[in-house]
């Protein structure tokens, strides 16, 4: 149909080396995500001292990351093949109606990663300040948070595409339908607010944890009892602070770029938009940062135990 026939601008975009490189980078990011997730899950189960309430939400975040990467890499692979096999046939666009289910699913996963970070921060707030946040109750709180994350992630796509006629065509299914472009500004605003909330609360919790650790430095029993809470909170805050930049670039950058589209040369707009779409990199870093943090934390605990053991042996030697 005429709807799926690409314009010269669409063809230039598909054949640009910048677009091809960006899709290959995103495919590599997806591969790294899938491979590193197995290692991250193994470390969470065997090397971490996270509460199960934290583990449940981390597993949920990793699921969203991998589901996103699988759906996105499918689209990216199609675009790479279209680029490499292009022989002048301009009938290669997809209709927005065809792409709607895939786009909604990708929005579900993207939102799940962002809302999931907020869920982890809220879970850490409960852990630090609720006296009743014990084993079974903590899992109950975590499952409630999980339900809300899934619910709000699930309605994001349908709300964004609500009453959209879906009568246009796009290069790939990860692109926003034209009629929903304005409404997407609200979505990006929500992402920005949540990302800033995660970042600010994470910094505050990290500072609070440092003070807590300092106040109980001479109380060995209290230090060990609080170690699980402190270690979990530090890891979640570390994730939120590290991933803040990527999600802020995505939510603010893409929103600004869409508003400035009329003032930019189309080639410049297309050049920047592929690199501001940082969600594949965000998804890749989630398991990698978890692996790094758990290994560092485990090594630190081992060193602390060795230090305490040497200290005890030294004291026993003096007594003898």
From TrEMBL:
<feature type="transmembrane region" description="Helical">
    <location>
        <begin position="20"/>
        <end position="45"/>
    </location>
</feature>
<feature type="transmembrane region" description="Helical">
    <location>
        <begin position="143"/>
        <end position="162"/>
    </location>
</feature>
<feature type="transmembrane region" description="Helical">
    <location>
        <begin position="235"/>
        <end position="257"/>
    </location>
</feature>
<dbReference type="InterPro" id="IPR000344">
    <property type="entry name" value="7TM_GPCR_serpentine_rcpt_Sra"/>
</dbReference>
<dbReference type="GO" id="GO:0050907">
    <property type="term" value="P:detection of chemical stimulus involved in sensory perception"/>
</dbReference>
<keyword id="KW-0812">Transmembrane</keyword>
<feature type="transmembrane region" description="Helical">
    <location>
        <begin position="101"/>
        <end position="122"/>
    </location>
</feature>
<dbReference type="Pfam" id="PF02117">
    <property type="entry name" value="7TM_GPCR_Sra"/>
</dbReference>
<dbReference type="GO" id="GO:0016020">
    <property type="term" value="C:membrane"/>
</dbReference>
<dbReference type="GO" id="GO:0004984">
    <property type="term" value="F:olfactory receptor activity"/>
</dbReference>
<feature type="transmembrane region" description="Helical">
    <location>
        <begin position="269"/>
        <end position="292"/>
    </location>
</feature>
<feature type="transmembrane region" description="Helical">
    <location>
        <begin position="57"/>
        <end position="81"/>
    </location>
</feature>
<dbReference type="InterPro" id="IPR051080">
    <property type="entry name" value="Nematode_rcpt-like_serp_alpha"/>
</dbReference>
<feature type="transmembrane region" description="Helical">
    <location>
        <begin position="185"/>
        <end position="206"/>
    </location>
</feature>
<keyword id="KW-1133">Transmembrane helix</keyword>
<protein>
    <submittedName>
        <fullName>Protein CBR-SRA-9</fullName>
    </submittedName>
</protein>
<keyword id="KW-0472">Membrane</keyword>
<comment type="similarity">
    <text>Belongs to the nematode receptor-like protein sra family.</text>
</comment>
<dbReference type="GO" id="GO:0004930">
    <property type="term" value="F:G protein-coupled receptor activity"/>
</dbReference>
């Amino acid at each position: 149909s005429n709807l799926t026939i690409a314009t010269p601008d669409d063809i230039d975009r598909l054949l640009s080396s910048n677009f091809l490189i960006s899709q290959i980078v995103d495919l590599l990011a997806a591969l790294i995500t899938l491979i590193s997730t197995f290692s991250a899950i193994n470390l969470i189960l065997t090397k971490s001292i996270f509460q199960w309430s934290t583990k449940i939400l981390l597993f949920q975040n990793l699921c969203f990351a991998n589901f996103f990467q699988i759906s996105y890499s499918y689209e990216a692979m199609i675009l790479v093949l279209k680029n490499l096999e292009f022989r002048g046939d301009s009938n290669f666009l997809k209709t927005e109606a065809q792409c709607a289910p895939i786009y909604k699913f990708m929005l579900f996963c993207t939102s799940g990663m962002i809302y999931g970070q907020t869920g982890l921060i809220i879970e850490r707030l409960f852990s630090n300040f609720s006296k009743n946040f014990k084993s079974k109750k903590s899992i109950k709180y975590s499952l409630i948070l999980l339900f809300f994350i899934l619910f709000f992630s699930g309605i994001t796509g349908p709300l964004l595409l609500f009453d959209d006629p879906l009568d246009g065509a796009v290069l790939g299914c990860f692109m926003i339908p034209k009629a929903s472009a304005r409404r997407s500004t609200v979505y990006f605003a929500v992402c920005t607010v949540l990302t800033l909330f995660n970042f600010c609360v994470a910094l505050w919790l990290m500072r609070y944890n440092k003070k807590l650790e300092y106040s109980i430095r001479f109380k060995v029993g209290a230090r060990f009892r609080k170690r699980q809470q402190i270690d979990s909170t530090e890891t979640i805050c570390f994730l939120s602070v590290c991933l803040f930049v990527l999600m802020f670039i995505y939510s603010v950058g893409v929103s600004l770029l869409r508003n400035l589209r009329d003032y930019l040369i189309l080639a410049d707009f297309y050049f920047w938009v592929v690199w501001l779409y940082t969600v594949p990199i965000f998804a890749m870093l989630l398991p990698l940062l978890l692996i790094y943090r758990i290994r560092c934390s485990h090594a630190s605990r081992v060193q602390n135990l060795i230090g305490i053991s040497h200290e005890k042996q030294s004291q026993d030697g003096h007594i003898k």
